[in-house]
């Protein structure tokens, strides 16, 4: 009774509920900040503004509560105000410039939006709330109700990538600068060791390059381009000491990077046991090689041959295969560069079946299509060359955006890897020689906003999820990155939902001559970008400092991917049937290498003794259950089973008879 | 049931002339009541009140169904395996087939890697000609790939009447082909007008899983199914469909054993791929729970690849897909081994010889699971047991239909007979029957093969060596009409552009190797010695050569952009 009364009162107070009854049960989070929120005194003498919390339910433009009507008046007005404290803080180089207050912004995380002020110091978010008590002399940004979102994380870039003696035109400075200009405050680059060379050395080389030049935080994926015992050790080192938790393998680039199915299986098993994420470049390299030869024979040498020799089926096939292997090895899978509908479909099907798989569409696949490969302008056509290729089906971007919005695809990257026209022209007579890669790091955020949010496919929270939060979770950087919370890094973007700009190579920050999104008009742009607590973009001016970017180490076993994997490991125990020994007659037979066990030819890259060492590791898959207390969720039978038939216990079986 | 007109017991005259009176003829498209008169092993007349010579043996059908004899598209009789031979040779195998209402079998020739296809083919023909008691034909398995194989395939298609070749995606290091090889084989097969069959399982993953499971101490038959999860089958089906699509080659997936593999096929068909799926008696009739049987010999009897799915709802699912047309053809995968032969793998499941029985039970199992349960009608039953197979393999309408001029391979079907399948009474030589104890409704009453009654009143009258080899022509219409239309449409064109004359970056010579010709890593599964491998590789360039052959699109292509015609392209600019 009392409750009903209370409800009625509430309804009286908040007629909003009558208007939107479906949303009445939504309970706002009491604390804003995830696991970092319990900072001493952060909430003392602060009013929790429940009106602000419920703002999301009242629509993006709902008026603020009366007591801060001042902001309301300014809302929709332009943007920042350089707020004077006691002193004006114009010079960024002084100590005080580390202290920053964003007032009146609408904080957008992946789960909710609310109005609050944000106070940052030393590159960290220190306080979130209304009426913050902040030291004097703080630079203040008046957000005027504009959205404040976590800075974007571009999970796939190739800056300064060496390619047959040349290097991509965007080095870590130009690349990360372009990233900042687009609202991305962290990039994840790929280390590509030459096949046969050391992974750790390559990693160190990339770190040198990036430390010297990057102007935003970064971390690194390492690509496994060959597989051997020494690589295994290096991978171990990278995970344990170097802060790498994601490795990419290639199913394409035959005879260069491509891995066989057996190698994939071994790598997946190995990484799955060490808590890393396996990324795959999914295309069937063998068929591509055949198709390329066929195209060249038919006299098709231009960039259209690139897409003709890599039909989307080949991408889908490889994705399917990778999903199968990952599911066999119980390893989380991350598919880089989802470029086609059919590949995306396979991923969403696999997710429906419960596989732990993440798909990464890139700016290019979300924004444009592969019809340009047929352009009469060779240089333009060549600038679209990337692998897997853009799909010639013009409905692909829309489809991928839909899947991204529905959560079937989770993260977005750019795969930014730009070459100048002269570099692309290496392949002017043979499309297989064209260096691959497209731009997209700068356009990523705006493009997704325009294609997915403006069209109503996703809301602002989902936008944050796919541009930063999910990536941070996969990399195990959450909530340091990808969230606005007390204790998180102060990588923020004030987002202008109405800003319209036209993408063109004339104004973009990349060094490439072509922009694959040329002429596209995008709504939504960053107004202010704050990276490491410093304003790097305001009023259209970039203040990037070469070398200011830090390497962010990632730890293994990200919860986002591995919680499920761990639980499954406990369940997926195989058991033998205890039988009496078969003592009937046995036929004579010729020992022919038929079964897998006896063959010495199974993995051409490995020597047999090493292999045996390695395989002893496989038995670990069973061990969690073996060790684990039977009271776990794991069914009781495996434990019981073990007692009956210990591993390697064939002699035991016979003794039962 | 049957009696003689005129003088009794003059088999010399009567045996070749046969009249079935009052039967209900069931073809795949319709059923109707008519009499059938056969002579010299061929159906001569169909209709009512036929005028037939005297001295004809008459079978009174009393309104029972008369169907085309079954065609078992997948048997492995007398198959050699590591010095052993499958328990059922061509005599016992075909005898079992006839007992179950199957009047034609298509066996698989499995050449040893390294040996000649034609020689193996001749070997199989010799075995079958001397022993088979029903008509047969042969698929040839491609167990390795090099240029010589291609020539032999050509000879087989042109001179020996073979129009289907099987490639293996499993059996790593023995039969397995990699994707490039599969691509090339499919290209060759397409140009020859044959059907590409595929044993779809990912052999690489299986090899890894087998090792893992052996390490876990699992050595019994349950390890067989644990190391070959159904995903691995579905993956390989998906991959082979992709390659078939790329090469525009018709694909036939043998032994569809799991739901997910069947789903992949059904999806591909929805997208328009020319692909056929073959569930077998075992996958339609039983499931893989028996691998966990405490009786080792029984568990081992179920070992086949891909394995029976442990999901007990699989047979039902597969029979539904068979009924709705997503799967089209049924075989038996009949390949039996004695328990003592199976026991070769008593301490290691990977050594257990693979194969299950099913040629005798096939028709009854399908009738019981599909027709009795109302999933399909009698016409569709005929379609999946014989007609579709005959169409796919270009035997139609000689086989798979009751029509004037067709072979007199018929059976009189009794839908009401109930029998319990058991190894005690079956015709196979194996000690175990995987359908042991299953009660099926529906069985053949009379079986006529080559115009002779081979089964009546439960008695088999088979003659060893009476089976004929039926040669099959390439380019079956049922399959290739669509393929031909597509290859005309799938024309690729280069874009005529001006010559790019801007600056070109200098590159170091480290090639970004993508051209297949130069590769020496392409076939890691192949026998290792390097020189041999290079020989193989030289065969690879042929994939292009055969592409040029006889397909019209390429000639038109040539005019626009001749191969090596970069000069032409530039001159257009």
TrEMBL record, chain B:
Keyword Ribosomal protein set for record: no
Subcellular location: Cytoplasm
GO-annotated molecular function: hydrolase activity, acting on carbon-nitrogen (but not peptide) bonds, in cyclic amides
Keywords: Cytoplasm, Developmental protein, Differentiation, Neurogenesis, Phosphoprotein
Annotated ranges, domain Amidohydrolase-related: 65-454
InterPro entries according to UniProt: Amidohydro-rel, Hydantoinase/dihydroPyrase, Metal-dep_hydrolase_composite, Metal_Hydrolase, Metallo-dep_Hydrolases_sf
Keyword Phosphoprotein among UniProt keywords: yes
Chain spans, region Disordered: 516-573
Annotated GO CC locations: cytosol; plasma membrane bounded cell projection
Compositionally skewed regions (Polar residues) per UniProt: 516-525, 535-544
Protein's GO biological process: cell differentiation; nervous system development
Primary localisation category: cytoplasm
Matches recorded under CDD domains: D-HYD
Alphabetical list of NCBIfam families matching this protein: D-hydantoinase
Similarity comment text for this entry: Belongs to the metallo-dependent hydrolases superfamily. Hydantoinase/dihydropyrimidinase family.
Protein's name according to its UniProt entry: Dihydropyrimidinase-related protein 2
Source lineage: Eukaryota, Metazoa, Chordata, Craniata, Vertebrata
Gene: DPYSL2
């Amino acid at each position: 009774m009392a409750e009903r009364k209370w409800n009625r009162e509430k309804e009286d107070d908040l007629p909003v509920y009558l208007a939107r009854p479906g949303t009445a049960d939504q309970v706002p989070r009491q604390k804003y900040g995830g696991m970092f929120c319990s900072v001493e005194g952060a909430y003392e003498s602060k009013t929790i503004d429940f009106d602000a919390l419920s703002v999301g339910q009242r629509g993006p433009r709902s008026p603020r509560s009366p007591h801060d009507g001042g902001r309301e008046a300014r809302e929709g007005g332009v943007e920042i105000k350089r707020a004077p404290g006691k002193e004006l803080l114009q010079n960024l180089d002084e100590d005080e410039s580390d202290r920053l207050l964003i007032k009146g912004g609408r904080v957008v995380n992946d789960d909710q939006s609310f109005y609050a002020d944000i106070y940052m110091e030393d590159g960290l978010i220190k306080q979130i709330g209304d009426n913050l008590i902040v030291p004097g002399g703080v630079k203040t940004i008046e957000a005027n109700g504009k959205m404040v979102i976590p800075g974007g994380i571009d999970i796939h870039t190739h800056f300064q990538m060496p390619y047959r003696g040349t290097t991509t035109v965007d080095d870590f400075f130009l690349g990360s600068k372009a990233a900042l200009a687009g609202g991305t405050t962290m990039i994840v680059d790929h280390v590509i060791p030459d096949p046969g060379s050391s992974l750790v050395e390559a990693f160190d080389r990339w770190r040198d390059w990036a430390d010297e030049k990057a102007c935003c935080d970064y971390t690194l994926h390492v690509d496994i381009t060959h597989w051997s015992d020494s690589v295994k050790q290096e991978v171990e080192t990278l995970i344990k000491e170097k802060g790498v938790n994601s490795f990419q393998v290639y199913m394409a680039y035959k005879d260069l990077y491509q891995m066989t199915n057996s190698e994939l299986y071994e790598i997946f098993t190995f990484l799955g046991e060490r808590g890393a994420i396996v990324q795959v470049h999914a295309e069937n390299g063998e068929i591509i090689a055949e198709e390329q030869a066929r195209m060249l024979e038919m006299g098709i040498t231009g960039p259209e041959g690139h897409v003709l020799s890599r039909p989307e089926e080949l991408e889908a096939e490889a994705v399917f295969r990778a999903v199968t292997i990952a599911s066999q090895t119980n390893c989380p899978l991350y598919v880089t560069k989802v470029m086609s509908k059919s590949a995306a479909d396979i991923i969403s099907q696999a997710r429906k079946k419960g596989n732990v798989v993440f798909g990464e569409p890139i700016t290019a696949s979300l924004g444009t299509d592969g019809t340009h490969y047929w352009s009469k302008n060779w240089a333009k056509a060549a600038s679209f060359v990337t692998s897997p290729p853009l799909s010639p089906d013009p409905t692909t971007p829309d489809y991928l955006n839909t899947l991204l919005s529905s959560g079937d695809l989770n993260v977005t990257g750019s795969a930014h890897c730009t070459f100048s026209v002269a570099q692309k022209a290496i392949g002017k007579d043979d499309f297989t020689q064209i260096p691959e890669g497209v731009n997209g790091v700068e356009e990523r955020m705006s493009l997704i906003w325009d294609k997915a949010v403006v069209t109503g496919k996703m809301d602002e929270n989902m936008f944050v999820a796919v541009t930063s939060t999910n990536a941070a979770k996969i990399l195990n950087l959450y909530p340091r990155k990808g969230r606005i919370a007390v204790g998180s890094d102060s990588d923020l973007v004030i987002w202008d939902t109405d800003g319209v700009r036209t993408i063109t190579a004339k104004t973009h920050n990349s060094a490439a001559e072509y922009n694959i999104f040329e002429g596209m008009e995008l709504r939504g742009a960053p107004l202010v970008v704050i990276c490491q607590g410093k304003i790097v973009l305001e009023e259209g001016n970039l203040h990037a400092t070469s070398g200011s970017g830090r390497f962010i180490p990632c730890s293994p076993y990200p919860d986002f991917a591995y919680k499920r994997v761990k639980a499954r490991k406990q369940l997926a125990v195989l058991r033998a049937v205890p039988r009496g020994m078969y003592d009937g007659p046995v036929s004579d037979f010729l020992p022919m290498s038929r079964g897998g066990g006896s063959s010495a030819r199974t993995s051409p890259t490995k020597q047999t003794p090493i292999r045996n060492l390695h395989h002893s590791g496989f038995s670990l898959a069973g061990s969690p259950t073996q060790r684990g207390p039977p009271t776990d969720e794991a069914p009781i039978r495996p434990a019981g089973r073990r007692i009956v038939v210990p591993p390697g216990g064939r002699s035991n079986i016979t003794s039962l008879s | 049931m049957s009696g003689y007109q005129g003088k009794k017991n003059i088999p010399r005259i009567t045996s070749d002339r046969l009249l079935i009176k009052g039967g209900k003829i069931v073809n795949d498209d319709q059923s109707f009541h008519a009499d059938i008169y056969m002579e010299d092993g061929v159906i001569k007349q169909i209709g009512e009140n036929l005028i037939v010579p005297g001295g004809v043996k008459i079978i009174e059908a009393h309104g029972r169904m008369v169907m085309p004899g079954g065609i078992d598209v997948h048997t492995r009789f007398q198959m050699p395996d590591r010095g052993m031979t499958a328990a059922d040779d061509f005599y016992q195998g075909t005898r079992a087939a006839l007992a179950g209402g199957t009047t034609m079998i298509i066996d698989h020739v499995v050449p040893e890697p390294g040996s000649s296809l034609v020689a193996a083919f001749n070997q199989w023909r010799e075995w079958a000609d001397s022993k088979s008691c029903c008509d047969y034909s042969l698929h040839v398995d491609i167990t390795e790939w090099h240029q010589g194989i291609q020539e032999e395939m050509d000879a087989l298609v042109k001179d020996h009447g073979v129009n289907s070749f099987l490639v293996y995606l499993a059996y790593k290091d023995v039969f397995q082909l990699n994707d490039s090889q599969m691509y090339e084989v499919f290209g060759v097969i397409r140009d020859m007008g044959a059907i590409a069959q595929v044993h779809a399982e990912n052999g690489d993953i299986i090899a890894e899983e087998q090792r893992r499971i052996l390490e876990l101490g699992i050595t019994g038959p349950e390890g067989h199914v644990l190391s070959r999860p159904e995903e691995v089958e579905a993956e390989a089906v998906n991959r082979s469909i992709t390659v078939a699509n790329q090469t525009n080659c018709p694909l036939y997936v043998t032994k569809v054993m799991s739901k997910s593999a069947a789903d992949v096929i059904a999806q591909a068909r929805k997208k328009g791929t020319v692909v056929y799926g073959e569930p077998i008696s075992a996958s339609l009739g039983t499931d893989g729970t028996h691998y966990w049987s405490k009786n080792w010999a029984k568990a081992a009897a179920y070992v086949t690849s891909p394995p029976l799915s442990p999901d007990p709802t699989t047979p039902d699912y597969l029979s539904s897909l068979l009924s709705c047309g997503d799967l089209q053809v049924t075989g038996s995968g009949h390949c039996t081994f004695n328990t003592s032969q199976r026991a070769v793998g008593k301490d290691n499941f990977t050594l257990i010889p693979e194969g299950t029985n099913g040629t005798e039970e096939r028709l009854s199992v399908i009738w019981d699971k599909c027709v009795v349960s109302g999933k399909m009608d009698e016409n569709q039953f005929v379609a999946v047991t014989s007609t579709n197979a005959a169409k796919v393999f270009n035997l139609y309408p000689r086989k798979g239909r009751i029509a004037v001029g067709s072979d007199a391979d018929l059976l009189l079907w009794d839908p009401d007979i109930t029998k319990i399948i058991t190894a005690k009474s079956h015709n196979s030589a194996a000690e175990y029957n995987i359908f042991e104890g299953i009660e099926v409704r529906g069985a053949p009453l009379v079986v006529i093969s080559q115009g002779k009654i081979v089964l009546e009143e439960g008695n088999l009258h088979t003659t060893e060596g009476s089976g004929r080899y039926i040669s099959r022509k390439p380019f079956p219409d049922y399959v290739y009409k669509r393929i031909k239309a597509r290859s005309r449409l799938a024309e690729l064109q280069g874009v005529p552009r001006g010559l790019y004359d801007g600056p070109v970056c200098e590159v170091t010579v480290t090639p970004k190797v993508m051209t297949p010709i130069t590769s020496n890593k392409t076939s890691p599964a192949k026998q290792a010695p390097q020189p041999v491998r290079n020989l193989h590789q030289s065969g690879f360039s042929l994939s292009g050569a055969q592409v040029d052959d006889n397909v019209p699109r390429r000639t038109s292509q040539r005019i626009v952009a001749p191969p090596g015609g970069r000069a032409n392209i530039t001159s257009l600019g």
